[in-house]
Amino acid sequence: MRRVAARASAYLQAGGKPAMMLADTVTTDKGHPDVLWKLVEICLLKAGPQDLPAKPGFLGLVLAGYVLVDILISRINFTPGIAVAVSLLDALLLATFVQLVLRIRAKPERFNQTLAAMAGTGLLLGLLAVPVIQGLSAAQLADQAASGLALLWLAILIWSLLILGHILRHALEVKLATGIGIGVLYSLLSVMIVRSLFPDAG
Fold first, then answer.
1. CB of 49 within 8 A of CB of 114?
2. What is the pTM of this model?
């Protein structure tokens, strides 16, 4: 499964377009609770990636958390080796995607904050999804219906795509619908790549 993360302090430019501050203008030191709350606000579409620290250390921290949560989720259905490989590939694909779209838009300086936003929000949504996926897996093994959990899982997936589109909207300075479209395309491509390399990881 794919996931994402982000944060924002300046929302609109003149003309109503999302504003993305340069990385070197958002380097204020904030406590961990403040940064965590910023990630929550991104999940609620109230902030953007430009509000997150641009420091490599922070990016490394959220990426590590993202991978660990991804492994935790993958372990529900797959062996430890496959779970680790799939999660590392997921993070690599996410970083490559962010680098690519930012370079296309000539905004490479936004890489750290954009990737941190996607990874951080993905981490939070992943933690929320763990019990849901565990419940669905248990119901499947017991051959029981779990329509409520299935609907909740679908809601999490849809919301994750909305968050991804929101982050891309700020990072690339595009419309929300465009950001969502790019996010959906990335999600489909990443799933295809993972399944092609790990046929049992679908």
1. yes
2. 0.81
